[in-house]
Design brief:
This protein has 15 helices and 20 strands. With 437 residues, it is an alpha/beta fold. It binds flavin-adenine dinucleotide.
Length: 437
């Protein structure tokens, strides 16, 4: 490994890959240091149960400008998820079976009420604090707003579970602004937002897009490089990995998730607002399971109670006489998604009679390079933490989906923030070091 680069990028997820490509295109000498043995970060298309399955981030949408532009740039199309033919939901007393449109209708009026102020509070969704209304509401919880809605018990049960699904975590401390911010990004329409979250996959999988960006970036990538220390020094920064290997660069971009940031020591010590934000963390600490059930079943969705180990199921493929299903739950430690019996118990509550054959998934929350699934913020995050987390410390810059301005928590937000960090470096020093000498 060379020890001198213009820019070191820590992390080869979408934020890191995008930043590295932008900098390489501008003539910078770039190294990506990645702790894992692969690119993609919290997206991971992996061969499991006889198919290539997305264990992490999956769905994209044309309302997401950054990822949409990347797909267009590399000529990559979409692969729609199947349209469900059946739906089941828990109404607080019993399981109800019906049409998918009935489930949407059950959620429609309460979601409209809940998010009616989304565009007023977030008139410019990519400038989340453009209106003082967002700051005024930032300490209010989503749970309190749901509790206060004049809706039926059945609607409330479904709405709580729906937002628990969106948060991939418990909603008691969830920021109401986070829910409004999501819906503002789809012009105030919660149904389009839901479509954005679970309808269109990337043709060839997320790997196709990550590979395309990586192939377009003439950079050195070092896998198995677990960065543990970043020290600012005159004219740049010194980065040290877990083996003590040192590497210097004029600028560093750190793209690690909020819940993995604590593993890196920074010198000088970060400001209190940053360390507080890292200590508080965020709420997306749930799980995503893949499992197969016996037989070619009609495609379905199912919404259980918010506190069930798997509270949402969506069937995705038919293959080899089985139906492949994705499940989400709010608490990664409430269910081991690789334990067939545990998944069978959870599934039986929502699809009685279904026989689970195999299960798989990745323990993102226990993964030291992630520590979380997709970031969903607590109260106060926008006003107290976002700007502090985005703020560079000298030549050390920060990026990642967790701290995006727009689609934070999504692949789109990762790409946005990687662009921003790269542009900031290029604006500060338009010439590469080699050209300046
Ligand atoms: C289960 C799940 C489902 C999701 N579903 C969707 C979805 O459908 N649609 C969507 O848009 N988004 C979804 N997301 C979110 C999306 O995947 C992420 O927001 C996005 O991929 C994050 O990209 P990133 O580059 O910011 O971070 P990451 O992808 O986490 O990349 C950070 C990289 O840094 C590396 N790293 C961490 N610490 C160190 C260290 N100390 N040294 C070196 N390297 C380090 C990591 O290994 C990782 O490769 C989902 C995420 C999960 C987990």
């Amino acid at each position: 490994m060379d020890t001198e680069y213009d820019v070191i990028v820590v992390g080869a997820g979408f934020a890191g890959l995008t930043a590295a490509r932008e900098l390489a295109h501008a003539g910078r000498r770039v190294a990506i240091l990645e702790g894992r043995d692969r690119i993609g970060g919290r997206t991971w298309l992996a061969p499991r149960m006889g198919l290539n399955l997305e264990l992490g981030g999956t769905w994209v949408h044309w309302t997401q400008p950054y990822v949409w532009a990347e797909l267009h740039r590399y000529g990559i199309g979409l692969a729609p998820s199947p349209t469900p033919e059946r739906a089941s939901w828990w109404n607080g007393r019993e399981l109800v079976h019906g049409e998918p449109d009935e489930l949407i209708a059950l959620l429609d009026a309460p979601n409209e009420l809940l998010t009616t102020r989304s565009r007023e509070v977030f008139p410019q969704p990519f400038a989340p604090l453009a209106s003082t209304a967002a700051a005024d509401l930032d300490e209010e919880t989503l749970a309190a707003h749901i509790a206060a809605l004049p809706i039926t018990d059945e609607q409330r049960t479904a709405l709580e579970s729906f937002w628990t699904l969106n948060f991939n975590g418990r909603i008691e401390d969830a920021a109401f602004t986070q829910a409004l911010r999501w819906v503002a990004l789809t012009n105030g329409d919660w149904k389009v937002n839901f479509e954005a979250c679970a309808t269109y996959k990337i043709q060839g999988g997320t790997k196709a897009l990550a590979d395309a960006i990586a192939a377009d970036a003439d950079v050195d990538v070092f896998f198995g490089t677990d960065v543990r220390d970043i020290r600012s020094e005159s004219g740049g920064a010194l980065v040290t990995d877990a083996t003590g290997r040192e590497i210097r660069a004029t600028d560093v971009i750190v793209t690690v998730p909020l819940h993995a940031l604590h593993r890196i020591a920074f010198s000088p010590a970060p400001p209190a607002a940053r360390t507080d934000a890292v200590a508080r963390g965020q709420l997306g600490l749930g799980t995503k399971a893949w499992f197969t059930i016996e037989g070619v079943q009609p495609h379905f969705v199912a919404l259980g109670a918010a506190d069930w180990p798997l509270n949402f199921l969506q069937s995705e493929y038919h293959h080899d006489g089985k139906t492949y299903v994705i499940g989400f739950g709010a608490d990664a430690h409430a269910i081991d998604v690789t334990d067939r019996d545990a998944v069978q118990d959870a599934v039986s509550r929502l699809v009685p009679g279904a026989r689970v054959v195999e299960t798989t998934g990745h323990a993102w929350v226990d993964d030291e390079f992630a520590g979380e699934t997709w970031p969903m913020h607590r109260t106060g995050f926008l006003t107290e933490s976002l700007a502090a987390l985005q703020q560079p410390a000298g030549r050390v810059h920060f990026a990642g989906s967790d701290i995006a301005d727009g689609w934070g928590g999504f692949i789109d937000g990762a790409i946005e923030s990687g662009m921003t960090a790269a542009r900031r470096i290029l604006a500060a020093s338009p010439q590469p070091v080699a050209a300046r000498v």
